[in-house]
Amino acid sequence: MNHTSERVDGIDTVQARLRINGTTHVLDLDPRVTLLDALREHLGLTGSKKGCDHGQCGACTVLVEGRRINACLTLAVMHDGDSITTVEGLATGDVLSPLQAAFVRHDGFQCGYCTPGQLCSATGMLEEVRAGWPSVVTTDVAGSPTLTDEEIRERMSGNLCRCSAYPNIVAAIADAAETDA
Ligand code: FES
Ligand code: FES
After folding, report:
1. Which ligand is located closest to the Cα atom of residue 161?
2. Partner of 176 for a Cys bridge, out of 7, 95, 99, 134, CB 3.0 to 4.6 A?
3. Is 35 in the pocket of ligand 1 (CB under 6 A)?
């Protein structure tokens, strides 16, 4: 539940309790603050990137309750009580997640700006495939989706890469999906 907590610079702030990468943070926020700005500006979690700030590039993708979401398109206070995973939370200590390791193996990044969003998006996407969710290119929507390159490209189409590392990103995701199977 949100609580109006105090007035800062003439703005009534709202308290939000966010569980991020396993740690609970209680923030007093201007209700207009996006989840992306709360992560980056209020908590110093700068792994999630601001590319377009308009829901078009996917650089800000994080997982909310396990589902991928563009953090620039949602308000932080809407996620009071939610469990959020950012790129900083994908590894276990120094051990990379299978997907992170596959990105390294396949050279799936160049400048790395889009990579946190690609990693969070692909993590969520692989769960969607495991849950049997079809995509627009799935031919047998009643069956279990097969993760072809075409499926990966379609399912990751919300994540842009200005370096055009796409072939290696697709290879990394395919590899991680197989390793994890
Ligand atoms: S910064 Fe959120 S989609 Fe581009
Ligand atoms: S690796 Fe540079 S934007 Fe994707």
Report:
1. 2
2. 99
3. no
Q: Which atom of ligand 1 is nearest to the CA of 49?
A: 1
Ligand 2 binding pocket includes 20 (Cβ within 6 Å)? no
Give residue 69 CA to ligand 2 midpoint distance, Å.
19
How many angstroms separate the CA atoms of 172 and 101, rounded? 9
What ligand 1 atom has the least distance to the C-alpha of 57?
4
For 44-92, write each residue's pLDDT tens digit. Answer: 999 999 999 999 999 999 999 999 999 999 999 999 999 999 999 999 9
Burial class (CB in 10 A: 0-12, 13-18, 19+), 10: exposed
User: Confidence band (pLDDT; 50, 70, 90) for 4?
Assistant: low
Q: What is the pLDDT of residue 9?
A: 72
Q: Helices 98-105 and 166-180 meet at what angle, rounded to 10?
A: 140
Are the C-beta atoms of residues 114 and 162 closer than 8 Å to each other? yes
Token pair for 52 = 């377009």
Beta bridge partners of 64: 67, 84
**Burial of 9 (C-beta count, 10 Å sphere; 0-12/13-18/19+):** exposed
